[in-house]
Design goal:
It contains eight helices and no strands. It is mainly α. It folds into two domains: 52 residues, no CATH class; 169 residues, no CATH class.
Length: 241
């Protein structure tokens, strides 16, 4: 298989196991999902041939097609995102915030990067709560309404189409900001690697932050590269009628 001139987002949308390959080489497949594999490998100084070989190996696994999110309807995908990823964010954010506050307070003088991590995560948590609310109250209902109208052969009001397009752009901008916040935390924490003198809470914090980033990557990927592309496809179909 030749992945050279395909976007990294499309590759992961087809087979989410590819995310592990991209994560290994620090390739952003969620917010940066529109970039071609060849271009991003050149930019990062990564061997395109090596990445290509590892992707081919991943695609050869028997269970690679266990969850083909691209085949799911917009409504089913929305339910999955809310139940899986929105619930995860709402449950884990307060827990991580408590750990971050304690580590910042106890270890902040010797390891001042933890004060920055606490501040960045606190801002991120507040923004994410607003973001999830906007998606659930505005964006997702718009996608459902447009999808259902198209399926039933009904006309979609022009105002609804305009609102959806604007909301999709806004959500993607907010995804980029969230991704950047986690990149800053990853850098400050030395790739979520605690120092030798780290206590148990310190280690738990970094482990949770790493898990939070991994979930955020998949969460944003499902929205940016699959759900929102499906929504844009519906908009395109409507205007072509």
């Amino acid at each position: 298989m030749n992945f050279t001139n395909r976007s990294v987002g499309d590759i992961v949308a087809e087979n989410y196991h590819a995310a592990g390959v991209f994560r290994q080489y620090g390739i952003d497949f969620c917010c940066g999902g529109g970039q071609l594999l060849s271009a991003i490998c050149e930019k990062k100084g990564v061997s395109l041939e090596t990445v290509q070989e590892e992707l081919e190996s991943v695609y050869g696994k028997e269970d690679c097609g266990s969850e083909n999110y691209s085949d799911w309807s917009p409504s089913f995908l929305i339910d999955y995102i809310i139940n899986r990823h929105h619930t995860f964010v709402r449950n884990k954010t307060p827990e991580i915030a408590v750990y971050a506050a304690k580590v910042s307070r106890v270890h902040g003088e010797k390891h001042p990067e933890n004060r920055e991590i606490f501040e960045i995560f606190t801002r991120l948590a507040n923004k994410l709560m607003e973001h999830l609310g906007s998606e659930e109250s505005t964006v997702f209902p718009l996608i459902r309404s447009v999808s259902e109208a198209m399926e039933n052969g009904n006309a979609v009001p022009a105002g609804m189409l305009k609102d959806l397009k604007l909301e999709l752009n806004k959500m993607e901008e907010e995804h980029e900001a969230a991704g950047e916040a986690m990149r800053q935390i990853r850098n400050l924490s030395n790739g979520f690697t605690p120092p030798q003198d780290a206590c148990t809470t310190y280690r738990i914090l970094y482990k949770n932050l790493e898990g939070f980033e991994n979930d955020l990557h998949k969460h944003v990927h499902l929205e940016n590269n699959i759900l929102f592309r499906k929504a844009e496809g519906l908009l395109g179909q409507h205007f072509c009628q």
